[in-house]
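# step 3/5: fold
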Amino acid sequence: MFEKETYIRRRAQLKKLVGNGVVVLFGNNESPANYPANGYAPFRQDSSFLYYFGQHRDGLVGVIDIDNDEEWLFGDDIDVEDIVWMGYTPSVADLGTEVGVSKTAPMAQLKVLCDKANGRSIHFLPPYRFDTKIQIMDLLGIHPSQQKEKASLDLIKAVVKMRATKEPQEIEAIEKACDVGYAMHTTAQLLIKPGVTERFIGGQVDGIARSLAQGVSFATIFSQHGEIMHGNPSDAPLEDGRLVLCDAGCELNDYCSDNTRTMPVNGKFTQKQLEIYSIVEACHDYVLEVAKPGVKYADVHFAVCRLMTDRLKELGLMKGDTEEAVRAGAHAMFLPHGLGHMMGMDVHDMEGLGQIYVGFDEETRPNLEQFGTNCLRMGRKLEPGFVVTDEPGIYFIPHLIDLWKKEGHCKEFLNFDLLETYKDFGGIRIEDDLLITEDGCRFMGSKRIPYHPQELEDFMKNN
């Protein structure tokens, strides 16, 4: 939690941006692993509630009555039955005082306040948990199937505007999370060797996050099948001669890190692996040259795609005119996702508010028609204080190769005969978190996880 004044200032700014009506921000409730008394730990609060009301306790709702200039925290005090099991929890009134909210009431009174709105707009964000959807239906009479479209666009845009630009204290929190990410990834790099299972190393990575932070910021990806974007660790032992991809991050003090590294299992790249790896490395580093305020991240993405296409043409995997190939989406054979996404309190920051509002603006709209391009999460014009990921990759996906070859899709730009020899290659991704500064950008975290080929090989060998 930041100082009380942070939340007072944020709520005041939100009032100005939304303009009128009643803003209702739902905190999360406990989410059971199976039975009701078996809740997940640690508890994960809703990020937007946390941004404006700062409290981690479950079962809270924050309300901002803009017209009457009132702020409320609704929730039921914890009774002795729960204190016996969970320990003492401050009263809702005390929680409100900690974040500068003077008016509090039991949860049952929230319905009374909503009923007294007298036709004024009640603003809420798109819900993503079923218990919240039921609560909204009880309060406002809106069926869960209609709540996403009934969510307040004014509130969505206001929250995105505020949360997209990170305050100095938020940047500091992300830097610290990145330092834990360094420990997670270097631990993995030191454990990698033939015969160790994916699950064992994935578990060690998770353990670092639980030991040094609140936990992981998303389910750890650790797999020799790097061509599978979300390849969870399996019981498979690591095999000599293969590559293994680790995509992992932590949450620390409510802010995230997100990094990816790809390593040779035996600590030494083959020539074939090095050729592909060097292309991804060049694309990853190229972003530092072109990402800056005023530049659209979609333009950075396609600049990387052109560089990748040029380098793949040198290997004979692609051919033809680079501009035409990228325009046709031929590069998506190798890079079927976007260059990166917003990051902050959520690893895909504000994802639940709608990617069209988070990652795009009035000037830059998503292209949902073209394979690969339809997966761009971030295309909007960059501004100082944005935190985005830089994560180019090259993947050889056997089913995709077979499909495009059968259909003749982009055959004028792809060498399918040579692609056949890469079907067992896997995939490579290199990812770091990028802060947009006043005149450019920089990677976040005080230490850089080894990724340059010689540096990585030396680290895996000598440590």
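# step 4/5: annotate
The mean pLDDT is 96.
# step 5/5: archive (pending)
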